[in-house]
Design brief:
The protein has about 120 residues and is of the alpha+beta class. The protein has 2 domains: about 60 residues, no CATH class; about 50 residues, no CATH class. It has 2 helices and 5 strands, in the order βββββαα. The protein has a 5-stranded antiparallel β-sheet, covered by helices on one side. The protein is elongated.
């Protein structure tokens, strides 16, 4: 969970949804200008929820906030890895012909992580 932002903190905004429809996605640094109990505002004149850092809108979000550039890069890499794994096992098929021992190790890693999550 992300920490509560502080006035003057630099955060990073990524254009998403309709704002990224015809233009390349770009990570932009913005400054937190106001922090309340439920919302905080930035110098891009948008309001975000403190708990989720999601944009306060009744429509499609135009931006996604990140605490650092590293957080965005890791999310991007994570998505790429997940897409690769999904493609490798698409249509219930072991496309890379992984041996059963390798598949058991993958299963063990995933199950172990789930158990750790449940304990916290």
């Amino acid at each position: 969970m992300k920490e509560k932002p502080k006035v003057g903190q630099i955060v990073y905004s990524l254009n998403i949804g309709n704002m990224a429809r015809n233009v390349k996605q770009k990570l932009t640094s913005i400054t937190v200008t106001k922090v309340g109990r439920i919302y905080f505002s930035c110098d891009n004149r948008r309001q975000y929820y403190i708990k989720s850092w999601g944009e306060d809108t009744i429509y499609c979000q135009d931006s996604q906030l990140y605490e650092s550039e590293t957080e965005w890069k890791e999310e991007k890499e994570s998505t790429k890895i997940i897409d690769f794994i999904q493609h490798s096992f698409r249509y219930d098929n072991n496309r890379n012909r992984l041996p059963i021992e390798e598949l058991r190790q993958i299963e063990f890693i995933i199950k172990n992580y789930k158990l750790q999550e449940e304990k916290t």
